[in-house]
Predict the 3D structure of the following.
Amino acid sequence: MRAERLTVVTLGCVLGGAVLLAALNLLTAPASDLHAPNFVISLVGKYLCYAILALAIDLVWGYAGILTLGHGAFFALGGYAMGMYLMRQIGVRGVYANPTLPDFMVFIGWNKLPWYWYGFDHFWFAVAMAMLVPGILAFAFGWFAFRSRVSGVYLSIITQALTYALMLAFFRNDMGFGGNNGMTDFKEILGFPLNRETTSVGLMLITALVLSAAFVLTHAMTGSRFGKVLIAVRDTESRTRFLGYRPESYKLVVWLASAMIAGIGGALYVPQVGIINPSEFAPGNSIEAVIWVAVGGRGTLAGAVLGAILVNLAKTMLTSALPEVWLFAIGALFILVTLFLPRGIMGLFTTCLPAVVPEATPDAVPGIAAAKSAASEIAG
């Protein structure tokens, strides 16, 4: 089995599973044992959004060696962009019946819509902002961080500080984003009521399609020459630099793409959960997303999707039965995976079937092997 076949299997599971659940929800009677309840549809939609975030993290961590502890910030920014659109759609149906201002602005005494809310009454503007805002932030952050050659644990700490700073900022009422309560009480999206089960099913199917598109995109990136250089940067950055490549440019591009993918995931997340608030910026969320990727297997893409779904399914089941145990369980899970399953669940497949996910080596880039032999000769 080759990596291309694994891609087909992953896409088949995501799309096939989503279509099957949609059919079981819409085409079976509520009393039937085969019926998929509405809450299951919402949960699966949420898991698929998390899988998009995990895919974005795997792109930078698994292939470029950038351990990010702040990708939840890009996810949350995309969510806020969609939340702003959904708030503008409430209009006179809000508590204060103001046609322009969201309820929380009326409550704190504002009488004018801030300039940065302009345009969010249009869906496609909100979608564009869900990608552009995380992209602009990622570009500004990456430009300074990568050009300064910040890497390793120092970069991870900075990314964690970034999302924590944004969380503190969004908690402020005068930021104009709802403060600690955030945004909620959404009514509709593109004219479709959010409380209608067909809307939930449609959002879940769209999320599955977007996840599949993101998977195909990231697979194409990592399988191209660009991806081979990324792997070389991850494994031997200094040697790749000596060959004439600019690692900081490759890192910046993949960091930008990853942030925009995460933003889209956040935009799909908000209408399905019905709320967005500053807690989405919490560093713990970003760290948990890294654990999803580690459990599934970093540097595989399919492992990121699998890890996000399995870990969140376990979280749902465990927090329902023993909510106080979850944090200990996920900590233990990360330790066990690190010690006994360093390549994640997908590593089990590569052990038995090495061709499923080929091991990335520095020789993947033409010239790296020559550089190794030249270095040996000089050392000799």
